[in-house]
Amino acid sequence: MSTSVLFCTLPLHTNYQMMDILSFHISDASASSDSLEANQLRKGIVWHSSTADLTLRFLLLFTEIVLSIGHTLASLAADESSTFVRMLGINQPIDIFEKSVGQHP
């Protein structure tokens, strides 16, 4: 069985709330399919009908994404990387939201 390892980076907002995203995605109390270590989240997922290991490593202004999948893929297509954009919530209009709530806690 062939395996592909795909890598990409995505920029993060300067005020990106990494801990909020990490706590949202960690749903497996036994850590059998999700694990969190410092700034890195690993998830077992199904990608294109194959099992895959997704690693998200959060750095200061970007996140590194590594997808190890149980079949051959040449690269991440644009629509596939947009899945990660949605997953990380970085396509949300943060500035508009912050202006609308002002200083409200």
Task: Characterise this structure.
There is one protein chain. It is built from three helices and five strands; from the N terminus they run E-H-E-E-E-E-H-H. With 105 residues, the protein is of the alpha+beta class. Strands 1-5-4-3-2 form a five-stranded antiparallel β-sheet, covered by helices on one side. It is globular.
What letter string, H or E per element, gives the SSE order?
EHEEEEHH
Runs with pLDDT <50, length 5+? Answer: none
**What percent strand?**
35-45%
Largest sheet: 5 strands, antiparallel
Assign the structural class, choosing from mainly alpha, mainly beta, alpha/beta, alpha+beta, or little secondary structure.
alpha+beta
Radius of gyration: 15 Å
Write the layout of secondary structure elements.
Layout: E1 4-11, H1 18-25, E2 34-37, E3 40-47, E4 50-58, E5 62-69, H2 78-88, H3 94-101
Antiparallel strand pairs: 1-5, 2-3, 3-4, 4-5
Summarize the structure.
This protein has 105 residues and is of the alpha+beta class.
